[in-house]
Q: What sequence folds into this?
């Protein structure tokens, strides 16, 4: 057997079954929160498929990296943006 996995392209995203990580996240989080937490499985399926469809449309229209700046500006700081200045600080005094 072949021990090495060859990708078609070097920049192929990591996939879980058929979906990329963010698409799987858009499908699974509503089903876990609404379906498991609130006992609404039918609503969870509709919201999950809707969020997946919206994410795919946004990525088609604006590109794959359009959501990364939104993470920087509108969500708390993470390890990914550790080298960047914090987005909520508007003025720096030296």
A:
């Amino acid at each position: 057997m072949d021990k090495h996995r060859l990708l078609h392209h070097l920049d192929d995203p990591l996939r879980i079954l058929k979906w990329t990580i963010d698409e799987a996240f858009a499908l699974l989080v509503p089903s876990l929160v609404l379906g498991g937490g609130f006992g609404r499985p039918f609503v969870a399926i509709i919201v999950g498929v809707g969020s997946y469809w919206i994410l795919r449309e946004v990525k088609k229209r604006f590109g794959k990296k359009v959501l990364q700046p939104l993470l920087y500006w509108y969500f708390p700081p993470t390890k990914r943006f550790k080298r960047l200045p914090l987005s909520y600080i508007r003025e720096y005094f030296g």
Strands lie at 15-16, 19-20. The longest strand covers residues 15-16.
